[in-house]
Amino acid sequence: MKNKKNILCIGAGYVGGPTMAMIARKCPEYRITVVDVNARRIEEWNSDSLPIYEPGLDDLIRTTRGKNLFFSTDIARGIRENAIIFVSVNTPTKAFGEGAGMAADLQFWETTARQILQYSESPKIVIEKSTLPVKTALAMERILTSAGNGVRFDVLSNPEFMAEGSALRDLEQPDRVLIGSRETKSGLAARQVLVELYAHWVPKEKILTSNIWSSELSKLVSNAFLAQRISSINAISALCEATEANIGEVARAVGMDSRVGSKFLNTSVGFGGSCFKKDILNLVYLCRNYGLEEVADYWEGVVRINDYQQTRFTRTMLKAMFNTLAGKKICLLGFAFKANTGDTRESPAIAITKKLLAEKADVAVSDPRALKNAAIDLKDVEGQVRFIEDPYAAAAGCHAIAVLTEWDLYRELDFERIYETMLKPAFIFDGRNILDHQRCFDIGFNVYPIGKPPLSHF
Ligand code: UDX
Ligand code: UDX
């Protein structure tokens, strides 16, 4: 089939790769090229060993790659040959200078804008896929029009709402697709091009259009609301522990109110992932910038509670294990920031491992998919942590197990077998409340869930 339209995506990461693969599957008449500055990443996308783990992705790539989906490092050529350009480069939190630790680091974004300007010879629709501070599109427009080379650029905002671990389902059946544009004649025409692309598989009523600033802000606010629910339930988990209420029962009762809803009320050791913290800090920075101190403080509280929840978890461990962890062997089950991904960005497991090491504990980390990334995250404490994929081997000889990721595999472990191989008294700290606590207690473990009374033999 002759390709009617060409699409380019700059940035072959967790967002760019799966999103473009889904477009390739749903729009066979489009030819899609994904480019990245990282040659090794592109090599991996072109191999049998993809750079990211996502359920179903191997199959999707196998059926689209080489047909209408291509991975390349030739950014200049990509820009020249494609009229529709998605930008999905990373925008981490700034680590230096003004706004350090809060604002978004836009250097990759600006580099990309300048590349687009440099190599464009014909009109382009440039689509922000990365989550960005509000009004970034304006900066993009300014850079693109700065040269006055006669090329027309329309900048759209089309934030991605997929979650890792369920990315393909989210991409295939999104709750909504959001497209923001300038409300000028050419802005509206560009918006329509993107509406038509998504209309290949997304029902029309789920494709929302808005002005470009609303679109940018909606993405930050969506993530802030989701994270806020987790911090809310985690804050209440502390109160449950103090009062002997049960967080599971409270969450069920609260979530059954249809005005509240039941999703994102799972208490945990804290949220992680590349987006929540970064986007909230961005929102906070934005509010402070506009002098909205009360609003900034309100949202900053969501991140504060998340840090508190991680600290609380290691404090519980310390207290339960007779106020000393020095020399004690602790097995961490799970390092990924959530199940069904190998991604460890901002995973609570990173801070927890370091807190345990600070107490001089001997830590073994286990995870079915994330050990490679875990080793990178823990580079500065290299040699102090053991990485053991098999959970039975990781737990053997340990004083305690801490569940940090809700992998199904951990629910199904043979805890009798594990108990036999551990030092006594043996402890379980369930940072995800996924295990059968009564059963583990009956086996002999001292069990410390989150937001529920502990089951202790002492
Ligand atoms: C990224 C952003 O982090 C997030 O804010 C946004 O919502 C979507 O895009 P993700 O895909 O998870 O999310 O990031 P990552 O996996 O780091 O991928 C970004 C890719 O862009 C990397 O492969 C990087 O090499 C590439 N990149 C970065 C470029 O191609 N050019 C650059 O100038 C900078
Ligand atoms: C999130 C948003 O859900 C998605 O819409 C956006 O595009 C990117 O950011 P992601 O970070 O991939 O997606 O995963 P998500 O499922 O939202 O989980 C984020 C974190 O919250 C994980 O650490 C997860 O374990 C935690 N979480 C989630 C809880 O602790 N409790 C819950 O009830 C839900």
Keywords, separated by commas or semicolons:
binds uridine-5'-diphosphate-xylopyranose; 18 helices; 458 residues; alpha/beta; six-stranded parallel beta sheet
Tally the helices. 18
Provide the helix percentage: 40-55%
Radius of gyration, rounded? 24 Å
Shape: globular
Percent strand: 5-15%
Rounded mean pLDDT score: 95
Distance between the termini: 71 Å
* Helical/strand content category: alpha/beta
Describe, in plain words, how this protein is organized in 3D.
This protein is an alpha/beta fold and 458 residues long. 44% of the residues lie in helices and 14% in strands. A six-stranded parallel beta sheet has the order 3-2-1-4-5-6, sandwiched between helices. A six-stranded parallel beta sheet has the order 11-10-9-12-13-14, sandwiched between helices. Strand 7, helix 8 and strand 8 form a beta-alpha-beta unit. Bound molecules: uridine-5'-diphosphate-xylopyranose (2 copies).
What's the topology here?
Elements: E1 5-10, H1 16-26, E2 30-35, H2 39-45, H3 57-64, E3 69-72, H4 75-81, E4 84-87, H5 107-119, E5 124-128, H6 136-146, E6 153-157, H7 167-172, E7 177-181, H8 185-198, E8 207-211, H9 212-243, H10 247-255, H11 276-289, H12 293-320, E9 329-333, H13 348-358, E10 362-366, H14 371-377, E11 385-387, H15 391-395, E12 400-403, H16 408-411, H17 415-421, E13 427-430, H18 437-443, E14 446-448
Parallel strand pairs: 1-2, 1-4, 2-3, 4-5, 5-6, 7-8, 9-10, 9-12, 10-11, 12-13, 13-14
Bound molecules: uridine-5'-diphosphate-xylopyranose (2 copies).
Residues 10-16, 36-38, 41, 88-91, 108, 111-112, 129-131, 274 line the site of one uridine-5'-diphosphate-xylopyranose.
